[in-house]
Every structure is written in structure tokens, then in C-alpha cells.
Specification:
Helices cover 83% and strands 0% of the residues. With 471 residues, the chain is an all-alpha fold. It has two domains: 222 residues, no CATH class; 209 residues, no CATH class. Helix 9 packs antiparallel against helix 10, helix 13 packs antiparallel against helix 14 and helix 14 packs antiparallel against helix 15. The protein is globular. It starts with 11 loop residues before the first helix and ends with a helix.
């Protein structure tokens, strides 16, 4: 097996950038993937776009759950990789895959039959209802294929192999460019399938990527090997992985629900505020991409160094990543601050009222982009150490106890009115970052030892392998 990265030794900055850059590029490609879907569905008209829009919260919840659970496997794999325990690295990978299989089958059956009820509760009617139900049902049927790619990508990141997943994402996005119009609009013997075609294209491309990824894991040539002999549930370990990953799923889902609630608040101030909010959130989503790259890179490095029992290096990794994340996002904030008005005018040219409000929102956010970097990097460090509950709690505090209440209070109970909505973002960013730094400074995150907590599981695994002649 090839050892792709020696992440427990050597220059820390080089290791961070080697991991972060491909992750950032992969996330940019995923954004392009979503834009391609939106573009081609938009050719079908407003009702088709409405069907996709109504389905999005459900899809985001599924992605949050799948991504969070896969993240748990990545955390454990990183620590065992750092410990140079290939047997447990392989075993954790196998059990993560089995857990995701069980979860995806349950959600597929559950979601397929409940899709009509979900869409009725969300107010879908007529063609929008029919298209949304069809779209969701296809995605639910192919959920295992979606989750397969989550597993592969997360496990590869856990061992420090981020380049191969990037190339796979690039291939997927390229294929989707051709399949989207083919399935949505039809061509030759392939009939036009509308919104359903978009779902089929997604399942096909993600399923192909997942199948290739799982093939790599079974081959054993990429740092992890899943063996058919070991494909039986280790319920104690699966429970551990689920308990570790569920808080990460809740954290991501909580962010989505928080943004939805913010949208309701903004909507009460009229069309201009809604437009400004939409543009500002797109800018924020773009800025979060590099922050997420540094967060995942930090998580992998911290996990491997803790596994190698190099706590001082793990702590140094976090500090170096903090500086890089803060500086990179602060520079991005400076650029957006200086170009706030041209950016606003690009999205909505000619509407001076919207441009003015959007410019204010972008400028207020831009000042504190560096603090977003701090918070995301530290949350990545907590996850890498196995403290997913701490990461979840701090993220939910930042959103639900700071940003949302501040937005409500400042906009409804002060003279700021709709400007209070925009001020809530930078205030919450700064306070949230300060709380996260304070928790990091306590040092309790360093005391958790996932590999020590599952010693009994390791012993059971070894005995089982010996009995069956695997080792």
C-alpha cells in the first residue's frame, strides 16, 4: 500500500496546503455541479425551478446526515492512520461502509413512500407537486449511490489522500455537463424527462463516482483495503461511529434550518431586503469554501497526529492553520469590501435600491470573514480530536443563540430596522469565534482518545480475524 502523505512529520504549512487546496478545488467543482443542474432545469420554466427549490431542504438534510456520518469514519481512520494501525484503519472503513448501507436503505424506503406527504406539507401543488415528488423519489432510490461517494471521499481524506478524490469529482462534474441536458431535455432515443431527468443524471454520475471509489477501497492500492471476508456488522463499532457522526449531521442540518429561519425574518422587510440577502448569502457561501478546506485539512492532520500520540504537533497544526485561515479569509474580506458595490451591481444591474442595501450587507460581513475562518478551523480541530459534540454545540450557539436572536432583536426592537439583520452577521461571527477560541484554550479537546475508547472492539476484531483465518 502506498503511503501518500507523512502527515505526522515534516513542514506543517506544506501538509496543510497539500490537503486544503485539492479540497477547496473539489468544493468549487461541487458548486459548479449544482449550478449546472439549476441552469438546465431553468430551461424548463418557473414551475420546474420551484419543484427543485422545494426539494432542496430535504436534499440538504440527507446530505447533512450522510456527510456527518461519513465524517465519523474519516476521524477514526485519521487517528488509526496516525497510529500506523492498518488493520483497524481497514476495519473502521469497512464498518463505516456497512453503517452507511444500512442508513441509506432505511432512508430510501422511508423517503420514497413519504415523499408525497412531505411535499404536501411544504405546500406544493399541481405540476410543482408532481415534479417535486418524482425528483425526490429518484434521489431516495439512489441514496446508497450518493452515500457511497461520501464514504469514499471522507475515508480518503482521513488518510490524507485528497488528490485522487479531486480528480474523481472533476470527472463527475464533466460528465454531468453532458448528462444534465441529455436527460432533462432529451436527445435521439432518450426522451425528455424534465425534472426527473436531473435527478437521474445526479444519481448516475454520483453512483458511478461512488462505484469507482469503492472499487479503489476494495483494491487496497490507495491506503485502505476493504475485504469481502470482513463484510459483516461489528455492531459495537458501528454504534461508536454513529454516535461520533450524528452530532456532525445535526450541526450541518442546524445551519440549514438557521438560514431558512433568517430568510423568513428577511422576507418580512420586503423585496429589496430579500434580494440583498440572497446575494449576500451567495457571497458568504463562496467565502466558506476555503474556510471549509482549511477545516477539513486541520481535522485530518489533528486526527493523525493524535493517533501518533504527537499532541504538541497536533496543537501546533491548529495554531498554524488558524493563522493561515484568518489571513486568507481576511484578505478575501478586504477584496469583497473594496468591490462590494460592483459585485452588487453585477447581480442586479440598474436597481439602485438593491445595490445600496446589498453593498452595506457585503461590507459588514467582509470585516469579519477572518473570524469565520477561525471558527471553522477550530471546529475542524475538535472533530479531528473526536469532539464532534463540542463542535456541534459551538456552531449551534453561534447561529441559534447569537445570529438569529440578534437579527430579530436588532431589526424589530431598534431603530436599525432591516440594517439590524445585516449587523447580526458580523457581531455573531466575532462573538462565536471568541467563544470557540476560549474553548480551545481550555485544552480539554486534547484529552479525548478515540482509539483508547474502543480497545475492546479492537481485541474482539483481532480474535475474530484469527478464528476466520483472515490474519
Amino acid at each position: 500500500m502506498t503511503d501518500y502523505n507523512k502527515l505526522t512529520e515534516g513542514p506543517i504549512i506544506k501538509s496543510l496546503l497539500t490537503l486544503a487546496v485539492p479540497i477547496i478545488l473539489a468544493n468549487i467543482l461541487q458548486t459548479a455541479y449544482q449550478l449546472t443542474d439549476t441552469f438546465w432545469v431553468g430551461r424548463l420554466g418557473a414551475e420546474a425551478v420551484a419543484a427543485i427549490s422545494l426539494s432542496f431542504p430535504i436534499i440538504f438534510l440527507l446530505v447533512s446526515l450522510g456527510g456527518g456520518l461519513a465524517m465519523a469514519g474519516a476521524i477514526l481512520v485519521a487517528q488509526y492512520k496516525g497510529k500506523n494501525d492498518q488493520r483497524m484503519t481497514n476495519h473502521v472503513s469497512t464498518q463505516t461502509m456497512l453503517m452507511m448501507f444500512f442508513v441509506s436503505i432505511f432512508l430510501s424506503v422511508f423517503g420514497y413512500f413519504l415523499a408525497p406527504m412531505i411535499m404536501r406539507l411544504m405546500g406544493a401543488e399541481g405540476t410543482v407537486f408532481t415534479d417535486a415528488v418524482s425528483y425526490l423519489r429518484v434521489l431516495f432510490m439512489g441514496l446508497f449511490f450518493l452515500f457511497s461517494f461520501f464514504i469514499y471521499q471522507s475515508l480518503m481524506r482521513g488518510i490524507g489522500n485528497v488528490k485522487v478524490p479531486f480528480y474523481l469529482v472533476l470527472s463527475t462534474v464533466t460528465l454531468n455537463l453532458f448528462l444534465d441536458p441529455l436527460f432533462i431535455l432529451g436527445f435521439g432515443i432518450i426522451p425528455p424527462m424534465g425534472v426527473t431527468g436531473a435527478a437521474i443524471a445526479t444519481i448516475f454520475t454520483q453512483g458511478l463516482a461512488g462505484a469507482i471509489g469503492l472499487g479503489m477501497l476494495f483494491s487496497g492500492k490507495y491506503g485502505i483495503q476493504i475485504k469481502i471476508k470482513e463484510l459483516k456488522p461489528d455492531y459495537k463499532l458501528i454504534k461508536k461511529i454513529f454516535n461520533l457522526g450524528f452530532p456532525a449531521s445535526v450541526e450541518q442540518s442546524g445551519r440549514a434550518l438557521g438560514m431558512t429561519f433568517m430568510a423568513f425574518l428577511v422576507a418580512s422587510f420586503g423585496t429589496v431586503s430579500i434580494a440583498a440577502f440572497g446575494i449576500g448569502i451567495r457571497i458568504l457561501s463562496f467565502v466558506i469554501i476555503p474556510a471549509l478546506g482549511f477545516a477539513v485539512a486541520t481535522s485530518t492532520l489533528v486526527g493523525q497526529n493524535i493517533g501518533a500520540n504527537k499532541m504538541e504537533r497536533a496543537e501546533k497544526v491548529v495554531k498554524v492553520s488558524l493563522v493561515l485561515g484568518f489571513v486568507a479569509l481576511t484578505l478575501a474580506g478586504l477584496i469583497f469590501f473594496l468591490l462590494a458595490k460592483p459585485i452588487a451591481a453585477f447581480f442586479i444591474p440598474g436597481d439602485l435600491a438593491v445595490v445600496q442595501v446589498t453593498t452595506l450587507f457585503i461590507k459588514l460581513q467582509a470585516f469579519t470573514f477572518g473570524f469565520i475562518g477561525i471558527q471553522m478551523v477550530l471546529n475542524g480541530a475538535f472533530r479531528g480530536a473526536g469532539n464532534t459534540v463540542i463542535s456541534m454545540v459551538l456552531s449551534l450557539i453561534s447561529l441559534w443563540l447569537l445570529r438569529v436572536p440578534l437579527a430579530y432583536f436588532l431589526s424589530y426592537y431598534t431603530s436599525l430596522a432591516e440594517k439590524g439583520l445585516w449587523w447580526a452577521f458580523p457581531i455573531a461571527n466575532v462573538i462565536g469565534a471568541m467563544l470557540t477560541v476560549a474553548w480551545f484554550a481550555k485544552g480539554t479537546w486534547k484529552k479525548k482518545r478515540l482509539t483508547e475508547e474502543i480497545k475492546i472492539v479492537e481485541k474482539t476484531v483481532e480474535e475474530s480475524m484469527i478464528e476466520e483465518g483472515v490474519i
